[in-house]
């Protein structure tokens, strides 16, 4: 076993470690239900959660990219007992929870590569959703338009995306021809982590292989009926490249529900929210009020009706989710309070 690993080369910084804590710092490199693949100064291994810390609600469940404290075991699985502070965090509404729970996707990354393919997958409304959640994570989003070799009009398509993705770098790339890869490699710096997000078949694994310069992930063949790739990534996995950068590859997401986008929505739609202070009334609902700057911008062609509708849809979805979240947080707090009282009674 390799015992010469410096956890700082995996992006760890000392400010993430609270004073007075001890134990081995490790990074989660993959999640398999209730078992975690890890890397630490002791090398690579596997770990499980300390149930008393996590199932009582005291610690956030770790996800790929998290730094944790654990009790290292030379033989068998180590025991994780604390999740360290997250610099950035990406989550979505858990599609299996009927809209009642948050699903952690990745943590402690510097860039979010939002990927859509130029042959069939390009969808500006879906891009709005990805950008909102990416901005919310606290990291810098970057849009990659893959499979440029399959679209003769890739330059025009890229310009459309640039107009919609304000303040975000947009690159058309091809893992097959190498188009745009040099621009992408500027983000691959030692100690930096990038998370790949996109639907199934957009070419995440192919791009990872192209950037790594070797076959690190299996790739699916292109289907003849719809020109889309088969889904190949089955779990979130952190992969360290020879250059020292790390990639978190994620499975394709059919659903990307809003969970918490309190700041991400304003970042993704800054072109819309800039009009709000210009309305005549401070409580303008942007419907039929006189002096509404939003309606004026739409009438003048400064703002498209389609983009405004996309903003309203995501905002309403986020508002609905936030109402449920408040209710759930109250219930969780009551449950923890009840559990503490029950535990105290047992000690008497």
Question: What features would you highlight for this structure?
Answer:
alpha/beta, 348 residues, 13 strands, six-stranded mixed β-sheet, 22% strand, five-stranded mixed β-barrel
What does this structure look like?
The chain has helices at residues 51-54, 124-137, 154-164, 181-184, 204-212, 264-268, 270-273, 293-299, 305-347, and strands at residues 24-32, 35-40, 43-49, 67-71, 78-83, 89-93, 102-107, 111-117, 140-146, 169-172, 193-198, 237-240, 246-249. It is α/β, with parallel strands linked by helices and 348 residues long. Residues 221-233 have low confidence and may be disordered.
List the topology elements.
Layout: E1 24-32, E2 35-40, E3 43-49, H1 51-54, E4 67-71, E5 78-83, E6 89-93, E7 102-107, E8 111-117, H2 124-137, E9 140-146, H3 154-164, E10 169-172, H4 181-184, E11 193-198, H5 204-212, E12 237-240, E13 246-249, H6 264-268, H7 270-273, H8 293-299, H9 305-347
Parallel strand pairs: 3-5, 8-9, 8-11, 9-10, 11-13
Antiparallel strand pairs: 1-2, 1-4, 2-3, 4-5, 6-7, 12-13
How would you briefly describe this protein structure?
With 348 residues, the chain is of the alpha/beta class. 29% of the residues lie in helices and 22% in strands.
**What is the radius of gyration computed over CA atoms, rounded to a whole number of angstroms?**
22 Å
Helix percent reads 25-40%
What overall form do the CA principal axes indicate? Answer: globular
Task: Give the low-confidence spans.
Answer: 221-233
Q: Number of DSSP helices?
A: 9
Q: Can you give the mean pLDDT?
A: 83
Strand numbers in spatial order across the main sheet: 10-9-8-11-13-12
Q: Give the beta-strand count.
A: 13
Q: Structural class of the helices, strands and pairings?
A: alpha/beta
What's the order of the H and E elements?
EEEHEEEEEHEHEHEHEEHHHH
> End-to-end distance, in Å?
48 Å
Summarize the biggest pleated sheet.
Answer: 6 strands, mixed
Strand content: 15-25%
């Amino acid at each position: 076993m390799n015992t010469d690993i410096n956890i700082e080369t995996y992006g760890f910084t000392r400010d993430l470690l609270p004073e007075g804590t001890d134990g081995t710092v490790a990074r989660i490199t993959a999640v398999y239900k209730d078992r975690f693949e890890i890397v630490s100064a002791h090398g690579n291994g596997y770990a499980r959660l300390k149930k008393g810390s996590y199932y009582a609600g005291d610690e956030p469940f770790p996800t790929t990219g998290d730094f944790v404290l654990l009790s290292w075991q030379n033989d068998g699985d180590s025991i994780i007992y604390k999740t360290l502070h997250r610099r950035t965090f990406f989550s979505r509404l858990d599609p299996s929870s009927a809209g009642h729970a948050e699903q952690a996707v990745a943590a402690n990354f510097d860039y979010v590569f939002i990927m859509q393919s130029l042959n069939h997958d390009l969808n500006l409304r879906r891009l709005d959703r990805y950008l909102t959640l990416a901005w919310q994570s606290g990291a810098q989003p970057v849009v990659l338009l893959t499979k440029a070799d399959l679209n003769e009009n890739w330059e025009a398509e890229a310009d459309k995306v640039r107009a919609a993705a304000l303040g975000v770098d947009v690159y058309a790339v091809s893992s097959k021809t190498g188009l745009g890869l040099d621009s992408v490699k500027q983000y691959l710096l030692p100690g930096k982590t990038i998370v790949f997000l996109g639907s199934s078949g957009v070419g995440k694994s192919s791009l990872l292989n192209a950037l790594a310069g070797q076959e690190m992930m299996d790739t699916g063949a292109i289907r003849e009926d719809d020109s889309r790739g088969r889904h190949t990534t089955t779990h979130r996995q952190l992969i360290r490249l020879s250059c020292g950068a790390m990639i978190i590859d994620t499975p394709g997401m059919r659903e990307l529900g809003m969970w918490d986008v309190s700041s991400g929505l304003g970042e993704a739609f800054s072109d819309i929210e800039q009009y709000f202070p210009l309305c005549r009334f401070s409580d303008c609902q942007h419907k039929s009020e006189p002096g509404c700057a939003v309606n004026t911008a739409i009438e003048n062609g400064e703002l498209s009706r389609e983009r405004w509708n996309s903003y309203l849809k995501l905002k309403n979805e986020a508002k609905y989710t936030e109402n449920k979240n408040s209710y759930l947080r109250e219930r969780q707090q009551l449950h923890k309070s009840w559990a503490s009282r029950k535990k105290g009674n047992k000690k008497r």
